[in-house]
Amino acid sequence: MTSRTECVLEQTQAILNLEPTQGDASLIGWEGRKVTALTAALLNGTFIQGFELDDWHSEAPLHSNSIILPALLAAAEQANAQASHFTTSGKDFLLATIAGYETGPRVGRSLWGTHVLSSGWHSGAVFGPAAASVSKLYGLDADTIEDAFGIACTQSCGLMSAQFESDVKRMHHGFAARNGLLAAVLAQGGYVGINSGNGKQPQYLPQELTSELGIRWQTNGIVIKPYAAMAGTHPSIDCIRHLQEQNPDRMKRFDGIKKIDILLSEAAFHHGGWRAARPLTATGAQMSNSFTAATQIVHGQVLMPQFTPDTLVDEDAWRLVDLTECKLHITDGDSIGCQEVRIRFEDGTVLHHSVPSAFGVEPPLSNDDIVAKWRQLTRDIVENEVVGKIEEIVLSLEEQDDLVALFELILQTSKNPLTR
């Protein structure tokens, strides 16, 4: 959906200019353009993470699909093109995906979970799920997979300072997808990586790598976002939605608001509790609890249309941002999802609501919710027939003998979602 936004078009072309020839891997939404597998993994990962609409894991924060799927799609497509005997079935692809889904959160938990964010790392880009998934798809043995992890972990990157105004925040998971794919390819070719990289000092909770393996499935902890914003902003958005539903007339008169307090856990506070100031980029706005809260109050939703150049300078929203104070509020367990919003009006009325976790985590989006989100996001961007065919393949992935049809479908040109 984001591969055709105006800024992404320019940035993508800058990378494509480095491509000497056509490759074997598809670039999502760029019909007729094939690139090398590494470039496809980088750009498709950037597209998927490009507007904060993907997935996340609440205990070991990462956006699994923007790392795993681009690496797997590129690896499978290149292997299919270069080896006539190699085909990727839906079952093989799904199994490799789950290998990544299980690996990423386990590494994240072993590295202190959400507190990785507070220490300055953009966590998802350092957890290694792409290397796990591609290694599984290639059928590598245990020693070679360890080499792949050792090659991937030394490429770990992603600073949280990217969240304030840069475009490179969108690319962190794309870098990880590319680096994980490269790691698996190098290991397959005999390149030796760091041995037991996660077992060496410094370390935090190495036992989390294998704790309850096969009993507690980390895949079940991967949740889909309902809002186009950083996951730590979702609970405060939920609080405001609740207040709007319970007090519709009062909340529509937002010009009477005197003060807004947002109480955040330590991880959420350090990630999104900073004071927003103009000028603010779309990236910064989506990372800000104060801006997303103001956006929900003024516009009634926090989706892609709320982050256009015009809405980013909306005076009503900025008045509320200036009235908002994010406060550190540590609770038992210090869950990133435990948040409270208090709104004081000029007449002395105070409305408040708290949640223990975000919608999407508890309760999670249902299968019907996820399909509805897919259809809503692709409406008027991708041809209806293409949307339907992709949906049909993905929902019957285990029954697919190969993924050639899917590769062809994701190549179809998409439109700019911000101008539809």
UniProtKB/TrEMBL annotation:
GO molecular function: lyase activity
Domain of life per record: Eukaryota
PANTHER family: 2-METHYLCITRATE DEHYDRATASE, 2-METHYLCITRATE DEHYDRATASE-RELATED
Record-stated family: Belongs to the PrpD family.
Region forming the signal peptide: none
Domain MmgE/PrpD C-terminal span(s) in chain numbering: 227-398
Transmembrane segments: none
Name this protein carries in UniProt: Immune-responsive protein 1
Coiled-coil segments on the chain, per record: none
Residues covered by the MmgE/PrpD N-terminal domain: 12-194
Pfam families to which the protein is assigned, alphabetical: MmgE_PrpD_C (PF19305), MmgE_PrpD_N (PF03972)
